[in-house]
Design goal:
homodimer; about 220 residues; alpha+beta; Glutaredoxin; Glutathione S-transferase Yfyf (Class Pi), Chain A, domain 2; 2 domains; four-stranded mixed sheet
Chain lengths: ~220, ~220
């Protein structure tokens, strides 16, 4: 299977897809798109993905975008190991957990939003940091409440690691960017520790990507 | 099937689930949760949905949240009429289109974000309106580009109305709130017109809900 991932080292959505590909043991080539400098808006990338966001997964003639849609696609075409459970109620719960970050917490801290806060309110770097911290903590607190009601055993849906765990781990990556203390979110921290002990997660972390190393050595 | 929907007249996510239930001809009782006055944060509702957002669908002992997860669940348990296509590539495209609004455009204009702009920047009503207009237009423009590359025929995925159309229509509902002119988005407008000609969409529109009528007659 010939797979290419247009992604960015710092993108949490790219992280999610990277983990899914690695959990399914699917080799892929990653093509960097620097969303901080606006490469996603250039005609070359617009031709790949008209939404002008990362990630995009290229599978033969197909170009798939939006991390959740890509992960579901991978589960549709390569069913084992399953990233979504088979039972409809459990599938819904896995998707709900995923959407806590994908549809609620993460969209609020993306570069385009941070840039728009600067344009519209003249927000300075500490203010942008406070904004990102507020929404990242909101997401972590939501996950903590949810995991308290249905404790991971050991993963969010049970024995099998999957979409929900990838999503919680992505929210924790956001906390890593901000150097947040996770002491107030013990269930989230335990689940993330379990995930990041696995190579698929550890090697997908933004700080482990070549682009991060290049950016921090500049 | 005994179904209850915790929703709010103005909530675009509630709109999406209402349409899905009606397309599948599933009767439901709607229980209003006033997210403008903060009812979602009260203990009664927190017990229903620990994320403290609407909508929540109650199906027997199951409580499902996040509009996309609910719609997928409905498609899993009541497969006909299908809201997602059977082909994996088409399924991915339907989900990608849905996530343009669910994961990118809509999260930025929810009440909790508008409230936080007031708290953090002292934003006044015209500024909040400009913020909402910016992100609503971003979403519409993205859909216009996507629909230009794969024109609806007549719906986004072909002959069968479904998740993607529901999501585009929800973005158009956001434009209705702001009284935006859709002339720059002809493909979006044509698709939305087709959708809102169907009773499932028309009767689900926020402006047709009892809560809207009560709010505007105050």
């Amino acid at each position: 299977m010939n797979l290419q991932l247009y992604g960015f080292w710092r993108s949490i959505a790219s992280f999610r897809v990277r983990v899914a590909l690695k959990l399914k043991d699917l080799p892929f080539e990653e093509i960097p798109v620097d969303i901080l400098s606006g490469e996603q808006f250039k005609p070359d990338y617009d031709a790949v993905n008209a939404e002008r966001v990362v990630p995009t997964l290229v599978h033969g003639e197909h170009r798939l975008f939006q991390s959740l849609a890509i992960i579901e696609y991978l589960d549709d075409i390569v069913p084992e190991p399953r990233l979504l459970p088979a039972d409809p109620v459990d599938r819904a719960y896995a998707r709900s957990l995923a959407l806590v970050t994908i549809a609620d917490a993460h969209p609020l801290v993306t570069p385009r939003v941070r840039n728009h806060l600067v344009e519209m309110f003249g927000a300075d770097a500490p203010t942008i940091g406070a904004w990102a911290t507020h929404w990242t903590i909101e997401g972590l607190a939501t996950y903590e409440r949810l995991l308290a009601r249905r404790p991971p055993a050991p993963f969010a849906l049970g024995q099998q690691v999957g979409l929900a765990d990838i999503s919680v781990a992505g929210q924790v990556v956001g906390a890593h960017f901000l150097k947040l203390d996770l002491a107030s979110f013990p269930a989230v921290r335990r689940l993330a520790d379990l995930c990041f002990a696995m190579p698929a997660f550890a090697t997908s972390h933004p700080f482990e990507q070549p682009g991060h190393k290049a950016a921090t050595s500049r």
